[in-house]
Amino acid sequence: MAKIPQASSNTSSDYVSSNSKRVSISQNGEELFIGTAESEHTEMYLKAIWYLHEKGQDAKVSSIAKLLNVTQPSVVQMLRKLHKSNLVEYNQTKVTLTEDGRRIGRQMIRNTRLLEVMMKDALKIEVDEEMACGIEHHMKNIFTDALCTLLKHPRTCPHGHNIPKGKCCN
Fold it and tell me: What is the tens place of the pLDDT at every residue in 106-165?
């Protein structure tokens, strides 16, 4: 196993989820940032719950499992982790986001929808949800707000869903 030179924790980000373990690697003047799959996984669950609530639906284990294409036992296991991390309130009948969970889920939705607008309107390419999903986890608030401003603060994504407003939209 190779040792990564000069690794140090990254705490300068203005958007890092509470479960994120990002590492900065500096070598020959270039800095690389490595995120963990676990933090992205957490963000996907929070995004899914936020999305269900946005649609006026209860975030049930079965609906989360269907949306994320995972098994119900996997959802239960993750909900317990999210509950312990104070990102959701979870019991047998109900799943609700805490303030931190709402903030992260909302930010993931905002990132995704702004990326979709950028693809369609600015880049003139077909919206690629998989690509947007891969990028959304690595966007800092300063980047998201700059993108929103560049796109002239769009209110809906190409699918017709509302884009949550950011500080730049006030």
Answer: 999 999 999 999 999 999 999 999 999 999 999 999 999 999 999 999 999 999 999 999
Q: Just give the CATH number of 37-100.
A: 1.10.10.10
**The CATH number of domain 103-169, selected from 1.10.10.10, 3.40.50.300, 1.10.10.60, 1.10.3300.10:** 1.10.10.10
Report yes or no: 117 and 110 within 8 Å, Cβ to Cβ: no
Provide the whole-model pTM. 0.79
Q: Residue 165 gets which letter from DSSP?
A: P
Q: Which two tokens stand for residue 88?
A: 């959701």
- The answer to whether 95 touches 79, Cβ cutoff 8 Å, is yes
Pull the structure tokens for residue 27: 């070598």
